[in-house]
């Protein structure tokens, strides 16, 4: 506790609760607890903002291996065109700021990212590759700060938009109208999930939960396959 306020840090999210001397503190704390139970953060990928082992490809497709740090940009009317990552060859190396005009893609652990030149991604051009198929699914991460009810301040939440298309320069926004048409074929390796999308058991609002489920089960299957291959 610093000064008159209580600060809580949970999973890189900052929660500022009003003063303990405030008679409404308990009511605000209860609302905050309910809010945590109802807000869903997209976490089927990893948290970003730390140096992570990976590689980056320049405009000539030359690969550099090292540590990469990328923080999804904050939503702001003052955001300039383009984005950047920080790159190090080793943990002790001096960091290099690499702008999106200087590279085409990068990888952090299992997550792949590409730079889009589409008009709608001009301010936020880095897209995560969710599905790398003939028709690809991309996710655009942005950081948003927002106020919760009754004096609860919450920060560092990801706002995610999804796009699909043959490449990052030719994309269409994924929405409620095209959700089933686009997602069902992308999940064709999971006929059970694909069928539920067609039957509207999974809808656009379920996208984050659907992706979490898909990749969690995919990871489990991969681990089982690896175990069976062991001598």
Give an account of the 3D structure:
By secondary structure, the protein is α+β, with helices and mostly antiparallel strands. The chain folds into two domains: 6-174, no CATH class; 176-224, no CATH class. Helix content is 23%, strand content 35%. It has four helices and twelve strands. Strands 1, 2, 3, 4, 5, 6, 7, 8, 9, 10, 11 and 12 form a twelve-stranded antiparallel β-sheet that branches. Residues 5-18 and 31-45 have low confidence and may be disordered.
For this entry, give a set of tags.
231 residues, 2 domains, 12 strands, 4 helices, 35% strand, alpha+beta, twelve-stranded antiparallel beta sheet
Protein structure class: alpha+beta
Give the topology string: H per helix, E per strand: EEHEEEEEEEEEEHHH
Mean pLDDT: 80
Termini separation comes to 54 Å
Summarize, please:
The protein is α+β, with helices and mostly antiparallel strands. 23% of the residues lie in helices and 35% in strands.
Write the layout of secondary structure elements.
Layout: E1 6-10, E2 13-17, H1 25-38, E3 52-58, E4 63-69, E5 84-88, E6 96-99, E7 103-108, E8 111-115, E9 126-131, E10 136-147, E11 153-167, E12 170-173, H2 179-186, H3 191-198, H4 207-229
Antiparallel strand pairs: 1-2, 2-11, 3-4, 3-7, 4-5, 5-6, 7-8, 8-9, 9-10, 10-11, 11-12
Helix pairs in contact: 2-3
């Amino acid at each position: 506790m610093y000064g008159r306020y209580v600060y809580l840090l949970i999973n890189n999210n900052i929660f500022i609760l009003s003063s303990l001397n405030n008679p409404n503190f308990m009511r605000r704390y209860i609302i905050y607890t309910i809010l945590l139970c109802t807000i869903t953060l997209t976490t089927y990928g990893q948290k970003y903002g730390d140096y992570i082992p990976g590689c980056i490809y320049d405009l000539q497709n030359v690969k550099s291996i090292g540590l990469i740090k990328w923080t999804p940009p904050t939503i702001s009317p003052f955001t300039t065109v383009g984005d950047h990552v920080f790159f190090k060859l080793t943990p002790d190396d001096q960091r290099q700021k690499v702008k999106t005009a200087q590279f085409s893609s990068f990888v952090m652990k299992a997550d792949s990212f590409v730079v889009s030149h589409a008009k709608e991604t001009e301010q936020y051009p880095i897209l995560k590759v969710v599905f790398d198929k003939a028709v690809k699914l991309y996710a655009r991460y942005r950081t948003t700060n927002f106020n919760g009810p009754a004096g609860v301040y919450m920060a560092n939440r990801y706002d995610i938009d999804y796009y699909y298309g043959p490449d990052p320069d030719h994309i269409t926004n994924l929405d409620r109208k095209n959700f089933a048409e686009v997602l069902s074929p992308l999940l064709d390796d999971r006929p059970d999930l694909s069928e539920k999308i067609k039957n509207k058991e999974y809808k656009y609002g379920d996208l984050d939960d659907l992706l979490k489920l898909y990749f969690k089960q995919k990871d489990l299957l991969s681990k089982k396959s690896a175990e069976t291959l062991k001598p």
